[in-house]
Amino acid sequence: xxxxxxxxxxxxxxxxxxxxxxxxxxxxxxxxxxxxxxxxxxxxxxxxxxxxxxxxxxxxxxxxxxxxxxxxxxxxxxxxxxxxxxxxxxxxxxxxxxxxxxxxxxxxxxxxxxxxxxxxxxxxxxxxxxxxxxxxxxxxxxxxxxxxxxxxxxxxxxxxxxxxxxxxxxxxxxxxxxxxxxxxxxxxxxxxxxxxxxxxxxxxxxxxxxxxxxxxxxxxxxxxxxxxxxxxxxxxxxxxxxxxxxxxxxxxxxxxxxxxxxxxxxxxxxxxxxxxxxxxxxxxxxxxxxxxxxxxxxxxxxxxxxxxxxxxxxxxxxxxxxxxxxxxxxxxxxxxxxxxxxxxxxxxxxxxxxxxxxxxxxxxxxxxxxxx
Length: 372
Hints:
- By secondary structure, the chain is mostly helical.
- Helix content is 63%, strand content 0%.
- It is built from 21 helices and no strands.
- Residues 367-372 have low confidence and may be disordered.
């Protein structure tokens, strides 16, 4: 059989989705046969009615990786909207890639990720991730790929069950912290989680391996304690995300992570300027966190506290203002007109109970209130 017959015989196998025969045939092609089939693939990809999906997408991908000269040409064929790739393609593609010593699988994954629009399907993400992992290369860092990574972490694949006598046992699920510890994507993709807007709303999933709520923040905090990841960077990134703001549901994840990290007074003192900005400017839940952290750490001098309090006492959130008044009422320094003047700011608050609390506090001191 000459090379023309060899590749022409593969064309109907690719079109029918005959995976095993396509893998064997493409793996056996010589260079001339690969070039011959490569010349047919762009036209085949364009003109097939109904698109490429399921097994036909697998065979098209096998042929593209096994025959096309580089990732650019392969992405032009496989990146079409009519081609729906999923994780079933990974093993056949890797088999052919090894047979022909293909070294550009990671580049192909990056190109396919950048060409796709909209959210990534889980099976498609696993295919791209598998290509990258096969070459030990850095993963894509697009918003789409980062979201796919986080979603994949929330859906662990069970480990293969060993044959056991009846009754069958449920497949074992590895704990999230163990999967993250061994994940080569962690150093590259973790910083991106703090940068992608709205992604925090997907972080508070349960860990199927432990039936644990808020598994992701807990796992990150544990890996910080183990020095697998840098606690300094994670705490800075958490506060940075809270400072930039996001939807309330997304910010809640980072508040949970902050609580899981449990910053020490020394860590809070190093970042006191950031906590002060959060206290005075951030949404209520974030401001409350900053208020509690600063009070617990006791790192502010009186002048800084009074300056921040002027802004906090003008905020509309009653609980936040009441807590700030309580903080001021417990100052151990002698009261004077400066402190009284700050407390008097709350005497003009829209909430009657806050106004009453401020007036009661002013009535207990001898200083005359000064207009703020």
